[in-house]
Amino acid sequence: MPNVIKLRKGLDINLQGRAEEKKIQLKSNGKYALMPDDFEGVTPKVVVREGDKVKAGDALFLNKQYPEVRFASPVSGTVREVVRGERRKVLCIRVDADAQQEFVDFGKRDPGSLSGEQVINALLEAGLFGYICQLPYAVSTNPSVMPKAIFVSALRDKPLAADFQFEVKGQEQDFVTGLEALSRIAKTHLGLGIQPDLQAEIRQLGADHFADIHIFDGKCPAGNVGVQVNHIDPVNKGEVVWTIGDPTVVLFIGRLFNTGRVDLRRTVALCGSEVKSPAYVDMLVGEELSTLLSNSYDAKHPVRIINGNVLTGRPTTKDGFLGAHTSEITVIPEGSDADELLGWIMPRLSQFSVSRSYFSWLMGKKQYALDARIKGGERHMIMSGEYDRVLPMDIYGEYLIKAIIAGDIDRQEALGIYEVSPEDFALAEFVDSSKLELQRIVREGLNILRKENA
Q: So what's the pLDDT on residue 359?
C-alpha cells in the first residue's frame, strides 16, 4: 500500500477560468525559442550560429559550469537569431521550424538493461538532463554528483493548474518508462494526489516496482516537490537529492527511451478568468504564444498574461514563448483600470481575503476573478505567523526570511534553507501583509549560499 501523508497547512485559492477537459487544435506558426532562464542556475554558452540548420534533439546551448549538460532544440529548422539583453546576456535562441520535421535518432533502449551511468549519459547526449533539478539550491543539477534519492511530484495543485491525470492519458507507458530510467540512477519517490484513477493506472503498469509511491492529502502546496522531500526524506547539509517538480519531464525521458527521439510536446492549459473558452492544447516547449492567444480573450481592458500559474509564473506577452516547465498559460485582469468605491473599507463579496477582511468568506467555495494588483505597499515585516499557516514544512518560515535578509548564513543553515526552493514561499508571498517579494528573497539567499559553498 502507498504511504499516505496528510498535510493540515496550506491554502487553496479557487479562481475562475479552470480549463475544461477538452483539447483545442492549434496550428503552429513555426516560430520557436528556447530560453536559458527557464533552467535555474544555468550559465548558457550558445553552440549554434544564426543560419545554422538543426534537427530536433540537436543542442542549442550548454551549461558553462557543466559543459556536458546540453539543451536540445524542440524542432528541426534554421536558427533565426540569438537574442541577447544587457551585458550580452543570452535571452533566447530562436528557431524557425521546417515544414517537415527531422529528428536526431538516439536509438530505442530498454532502461532495465542499463546502468545508472548509462541512463545519465543517454539523457546528457539527448539534451534532456538539464530538466532535472536538485536540492539544495533548487537549480539544474550537476551530473557528476550522485543523489541520495530522486523525487518526482505528479501532483499539480496550484490555482488553475493543469490536470496531469488528463495529460498523461494514453501516455502512461512513457511515464512508467521514465520512472524506470530514473530508478536506475537512485532510489525514486513518486508523489501523487488523492486521485484513485491515476493511482490505479500507474500501479497497474508497474510503476510501484520502480518508485516508492506516496499519496499527499492536503491543500496547496502539497504538490511542491520540496514539500514532499521535507516529509519523506529531508535534505541535510552535504546531501543532494534530484527533483522533478514538473511530471511532464518524466514523459520526455520515457519518450526518449521508447522512441529514440527527443519529443518536447506537452499538454498546456489555457486558463484564467479572462479566457473565453478555457481548454487544453498540445504544444512544444518554446512554441510562440501568439497563435494560442489570438482571439482567446477580450482585449477591451488590460490583462496580465502569465507563463505558468498565478503564484510562480512569469509575466509574458502574446509574442512570448512557452516555458520549458510551463503547464499553464494564465490570463487574468491587470487591475490597472479598477476603480473601487472606498477601497478596502467596503464589505466586499467578490474579493478574496485570507484574513476575512471581506464578507466573501461567508460565500463558501466561491470562485474568484482576482486581478494582478498587490493592493498595498511594502512595509516592515511583522512576526504574525502568517507564513506558518500556509507552509506545511518543518521550518520556521518567518525566521528564515529574516535570516536571509540579514545575510546570516549560519542562521540560514540552522533554519533549513537547504530544504527549500522559492516556490515553497509562493503562498506565503500571497498572504504576506508586508508585501515582501519572498520568492525573490529566497532565490537570492540560495544563490549566495551556492556561491559561498562552491
A: 67
Contacts of 293 (CB under 8 A, 6+ apart): 270, 305, 318, 329, 331
DSSP string over 125-163: HHT-GGG-EEETTTEEPPTTS--SEEEEE----STT---
**In terms of pTM, does the model score above 0.90?**
yes
Count of C-beta atoms within a 10 Å radius of residue 191: 29
More confident residue, 259 or 338: 259
CB 150 within 8 A of CB 249: no
Q: Which three cell numbers stand for residue 416?
A: 533549513
Q: How far is CA 28 from the centre of its chain?
A: 23
Burial class (CB in 10 A: 0-12, 13-18, 19+), 141: buried
Written as nine digits, the cell of 71 is 539543451
Beginning with the edge strand found earlier in the chain, give each strand of the sheet holding 53-54 in spatial order: 31-34, 90-97, 77-84, 53-54
Show the cell assigned to 76: 528541426
**In terms of DSSP bridges, do strands 59-63 and 44-46 run parallel, antiparallel, or are they unpaired?**
antiparallel
